[in-house]
């Protein structure tokens, strides 16, 4: 009997974790932005001259960013997952859910900058540099309004 | 900065009865009516007005400038260079520019503050004890603002401070979270500074603006 209870407890633990908690959503969201950061990191390093320009690598990073723009953010922006709901777990400000239109605007500027980047990424460092700058600018502009500075 | 916490050390002896003197410093007796001295050396004056321009540029560009913050960075570096020059000048500069001559202890600050509301000019031959407190305060807050700016990483890959890569991301975020409140504090300090100058001019009938241009101050 005791063995049965123990095994039930072992089974129950992972099945509880399967439920989508607000924290899961926040972690997945942070993961999505980490992916963007991973691609952006090397592009920025090339643009700043910290890394040699590599047309193929630049095109791949740009294409990955473009692919990620097709990912629907709806589940990542589930209500009840702001930094007011989950202090210390996320920097997403409640302003996101109060002003979805504003978020949409920022997202459109970001997508346009990613598309612009894709059209020039393989054309040389002089073309890449301003496109990366413009893209980083759209990151900043959204961070300013919708992301807390610290956890 | 240790000199600042030891006011009075190495100060010039007080002359008896405020004899008119060209090298009169903040440590000396008030200016006599009609007595004129060289109060601010050219480094202090150029520092002051260059800081006005560089700080206004850094603040405005930070708040309202383009999302690619290159110009904000240059303005910030200029402020940093000016602050470093002023601190060095506070040890090796002219008598009125040296911290040791104008930073005072609580007793002198309180004594000066007790006369603050009287409707007469201070005739201070340099920084008054209360103003000295402000100078030290604003230099410290500016240094903090420069430090947090250099370390801040907003994680947009284009606006990271040049020293952010040498610290952990947690530190870089903390620096970022301090940078903006400090900018508000600095704006308040600028407001207090300008309000004090206006107060001296209108209430105490003492013009502190002209000496910052000409370097000369006349007793009233």
UniProtKB/TrEMBL annotation, chain A:
<dbReference type="InterPro" id="IPR012127">
    <property type="entry name" value="Cyt_c_prime"/>
</dbReference>
<dbReference type="GO" id="GO:0005506">
    <property type="term" value="F:iron ion binding"/>
</dbReference>
<dbReference type="GO" id="GO:0009055">
    <property type="term" value="F:electron transfer activity"/>
</dbReference>
<feature type="binding site" description="covalent">
    <location>
        <position position="142"/>
    </location>
    <ligand>
        <name>heme c</name>
    </ligand>
</feature>
<dbReference type="InterPro" id="IPR010980">
    <property type="entry name" value="Cyt_c/b562"/>
</dbReference>
<dbReference type="InterPro" id="IPR002321">
    <property type="entry name" value="Cyt_c_II"/>
</dbReference>
<keyword id="KW-0732">Signal</keyword>
<feature type="binding site" description="covalent">
    <location>
        <position position="139"/>
    </location>
    <ligand>
        <name>heme c</name>
    </ligand>
</feature>
<keyword id="KW-0349">Heme</keyword>
<dbReference type="GO" id="GO:0042597">
    <property type="term" value="C:periplasmic space"/>
</dbReference>
<keyword id="KW-0249">Electron transport</keyword>
<keyword id="KW-0813">Transport</keyword>
<feature type="binding site" description="axial binding residue">
    <location>
        <position position="143"/>
    </location>
    <ligand>
        <name>heme c</name>
    </ligand>
</feature>
<keyword id="KW-0408">Iron</keyword>
<feature type="signal peptide">
    <location>
        <begin position="1"/>
        <end position="19"/>
    </location>
</feature>
<dbReference type="GO" id="GO:0022900">
    <property type="term" value="P:electron transport chain"/>
</dbReference>
<dbReference type="GO" id="GO:0020037">
    <property type="term" value="F:heme binding"/>
</dbReference>
<dbReference type="Pfam" id="PF01322">
    <property type="entry name" value="Cytochrom_C_2"/>
</dbReference>
<protein>
    <submittedName>
        <fullName>Cytochrome c556</fullName>
    </submittedName>
</protein>
<keyword id="KW-0479">Metal-binding</keyword>
UniProtKB/TrEMBL annotation, chain B:
<feature type="domain" description="Cytochrome b561 bacterial/Ni-hydrogenase">
    <location>
        <begin position="39"/>
        <end position="215"/>
    </location>
</feature>
<dbReference type="GO" id="GO:0022904">
    <property type="term" value="P:respiratory electron transport chain"/>
</dbReference>
<keyword id="KW-0812">Transmembrane</keyword>
<feature type="region of interest" description="Disordered">
    <location>
        <begin position="1"/>
        <end position="28"/>
    </location>
</feature>
<keyword id="KW-1003">Cell membrane</keyword>
<dbReference type="InterPro" id="IPR016174">
    <property type="entry name" value="Di-haem_cyt_TM"/>
</dbReference>
<dbReference type="Pfam" id="PF01292">
    <property type="entry name" value="Ni_hydr_CYTB"/>
</dbReference>
<dbReference type="InterPro" id="IPR011577">
    <property type="entry name" value="Cyt_b561_bac/Ni-Hgenase"/>
</dbReference>
<feature type="compositionally biased region" description="Low complexity">
    <location>
        <begin position="7"/>
        <end position="20"/>
    </location>
</feature>
<protein>
    <submittedName>
        <fullName>Cytochrome b</fullName>
    </submittedName>
</protein>
<dbReference type="GO" id="GO:0020037">
    <property type="term" value="F:heme binding"/>
</dbReference>
<feature type="transmembrane region" description="Helical">
    <location>
        <begin position="46"/>
        <end position="65"/>
    </location>
</feature>
<feature type="transmembrane region" description="Helical">
    <location>
        <begin position="130"/>
        <end position="152"/>
    </location>
</feature>
<keyword id="KW-0472">Membrane</keyword>
<dbReference type="GO" id="GO:0009055">
    <property type="term" value="F:electron transfer activity"/>
</dbReference>
<dbReference type="InterPro" id="IPR051542">
    <property type="entry name" value="Hydrogenase_cytochrome"/>
</dbReference>
<dbReference type="GO" id="GO:0005886">
    <property type="term" value="C:plasma membrane"/>
</dbReference>
<keyword id="KW-1133">Transmembrane helix</keyword>
<feature type="transmembrane region" description="Helical">
    <location>
        <begin position="71"/>
        <end position="92"/>
    </location>
</feature>
<feature type="transmembrane region" description="Helical">
    <location>
        <begin position="182"/>
        <end position="203"/>
    </location>
</feature>
């Amino acid at each position: 009997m005791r063995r049965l209870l123990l095994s039930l407890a072992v089974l129950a633990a992972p099945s509880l974790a399967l439920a989508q908690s607000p924290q899961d959503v926040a972690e997945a969201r942070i993961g999505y932005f980490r992916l963007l950061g991973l691609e952006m990191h090397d592009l920025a390093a090339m643009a700043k001259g910290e890394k040699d320009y590599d047309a193929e690598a630049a095109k791949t990073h740009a294409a990955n960013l473009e692919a990620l723009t097709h990912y629907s953010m709806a589940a990542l922006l589930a209500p009840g997952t702001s930094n007011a709901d989950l202090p210390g777990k996320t920097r997403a400000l409640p302003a996101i859910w109060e002003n979805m239109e504003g978020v949409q605007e920022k997202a459109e500027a970001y997508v346009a900058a990613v598309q612009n980047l894709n059209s020039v990424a393989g054309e040389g460092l002089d073309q890449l540099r301003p496109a990366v700058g413009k893209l980083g600018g759209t990151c900043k502009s959204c961070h300013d309004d919708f992301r807390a500075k610290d956890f | 900065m240790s000199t600042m916490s030891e006011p009075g050390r190495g100060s010039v002896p007080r002359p008896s009865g405020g004899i008119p003197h060209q090298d009169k410093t903040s440590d000396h007796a008030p200016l006599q009516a009609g007595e004129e001295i060289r109060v601010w050396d050219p480094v202090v004056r150029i520092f002051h007005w260059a800081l006005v321009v560089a700080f206004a540029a850094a603040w405005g560009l930070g708040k309202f400038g383009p999302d690619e913050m290159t110009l904000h960075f240059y303005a910030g570096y200029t402020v940093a260079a000016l602050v470093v020059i002023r601190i060095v000048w506070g040890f090796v500069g002219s008598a009125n520019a040296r911290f040791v001559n104008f930073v005072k202890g609580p007793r002198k600050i309180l004594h000066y503050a007790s006369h603050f509301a009287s409707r007469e000019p201070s005739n201070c031959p340099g920084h008054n004890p209360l103003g000295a407190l402000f100078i030290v305060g604003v230099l410290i807050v500016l240094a903090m603002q420069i430090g947090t700016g250099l370390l801040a990483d907003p994680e947009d890959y284009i606006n990271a401070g040049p020293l952010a890569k040498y610290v952990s991301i947690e530190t870089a975020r903390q620096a970022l979270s301090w940078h903006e409140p400090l900018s508000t504090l600095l704006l308040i300090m600028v407001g207090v500074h300008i309000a004090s100058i206006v107060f001296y001019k209108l209430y105490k009938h003492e013009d502190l603006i002209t000496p910052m241009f000409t370097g000369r101050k006349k007793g009233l």
